[in-house]
Each structure stands twice: as structure tokens, then as C-alpha cells.
Amino acid sequence: MGCFECCIKCLGGVPYASLVATILCFSGVALFCGCGHVALTGTVAILETHFSKVTSDHAMLTDIIQLMQYVIYGIASFFFLYGIILLAEGFYTTSAVKELHSEFKTTICGRCISGMFVFLTYILGIAWLGVFGFSAVPVFLFYNMWSTCATIAPMANLTEIDSICVDVRQYGIIPWNATPGKACGSTLGDICNTSEFYLSYHLYIVACAGAGATVIALLIYMMATTYNFAVLKFKSREDCCTKF
Q1: Which residues are CB-contacts of 12 (< 8 A; sequence separation ≥ 6)?
Q2: What sign does the dihedral 213-127-40-23 (CA atoms) show?
Q3: What is the pLDDT of residues 5-26, one digit of tens each?
Q4: What keywords is this UniProt entry annotated with (predicted)?
Q5: How far is CA 24 from the centre of its chain?
Q6: DSSP per-residue codes, 56-109
Q7: C-alpha distance from residue 154 to each of 144, 158, 159, 161, 163 (Å)
Q8: Per residue in 171-197, pLDDT tens?
Q9: Rounded Cα distance, 102 and 234, in Å
């Protein structure tokens, strides 16, 4: 076998679907975790500075955000390892599927491991759909605030401007007894012009996009692993039938 034929055979065993999914998964998780972590820190700064100046009023929210940041660390570590494992499993199953027409045989243990990854990837895909929906919530809140600020800019009447407010207490972020709890008029415009608001808003958008990319990556993983598992199971039954 020449060098060219050897290279073609090696390239034929590459799980391109799993490879694309791994790159997309790493990119999506990195965007979600990195941007989400920084955006949460900026959100706390905005609330403490403009909406809840008494520490006890937002103490629970601060604890929840810190817990979410620790969860982000765990998500990043888990998906880094899980992506590598799925890529390695993709190499194994792809080679098995391509070589089944020769004398290559798979074991029951290997098929069970492949089935376990199919099930686990389905569960993670459903979970990440929830994460994607949850990550859209802060984007919606910041967009409402930004659109309200956009209506203030062209106004010249101070009375009309002062009547336009954003009350974050209505979203359940902070309790109703938090002071001041809302921002109106020029104060609201100043908040929207701060670097914390601008950065947090766009980071939440990028984090939401990263969660969406991770969902797509898991869908690709699901299709690839399900196909490979189905082919392996079918071929194993075919081999059992040919023995008799």
C-alpha cells in the first residue's frame, strides 16, 4: 500500500461530524462560560450602584450569582473532558463502521459504551435547551432597558423624560422593599451610557449565542452517535445470523 492510499484510509476513519461538533461545542461553551461569568459580575455592579444600595436587599441575589459563577466553572471543565471523550468515541465507532465489511468485529462492551454516550448526549441536549432558554432571559431584560433608554434620547421635554422609568423589582430580581429599585429619566439614560451596562448587555448576547452553538453541537453529536450505534448494532445482529 502506497503513501497516498494510506493517507486516504486514515482520512476515511476521521469522524468529521464529531470533529465539527467538538469544535463547535468547545467554542460555544467557552463563549457561554466566559462571557456569562463577566456579564454576571457587571450585573451585580449595576444593581449595587443604581438599583439596590442596601447590601441586605440583594444579598440573596449576590449569593445566587456567585453560585452560578461556580457552576460555570464546573460546566466548562465537564464539557472540555466530555468533548474529548466524545471525539475519541467518534474515532472508535467510525473506524468500526468503516471496517465492519472486513474481519473487524465489535464487542458487547463497546456497543454498551456507545449506547451510554447516546443516552447521555440526549440528556445533555435537553438540558442545554433549558440553558439556552434561561440565557435569553437577561438578554430580554437588558433589551427592555436599552429600548427604554432609546426612547428617552430624542425627547426634549424634561417632564416627559422623568415619567419614563425602569423598575427592576417587577422582574423579581430584587425585593420590593429595595431602594431605590427603579431609575427614571436622565438617571436611566446615564445608566445605559455606562460601560458596565454596555459590556454586560453585549456579553449576555454572546453568551446566549454560545449556548445556542452548544445546543447545535450536541444535536450533531446525537445524530452521529445514534447513527454509528445503530449501524454497529445492526451489523452485530447480522454477524450473529450468519453464524447459523
Answers
A1: 98
A2: negative
A3: 665 565 555 677 788 888 999 9
A4: Membrane, Transmembrane, Transmembrane helix
A5: 11
A6: GGGHHHHHHHHHHHHHHHHHHHHHHHHHHHHHHHHHHHHHHHHHTTTT----HH
A7: 17, 11, 13, 10, 14
A8: 888 888 877 878 888 888 888 888 888
A9: 15
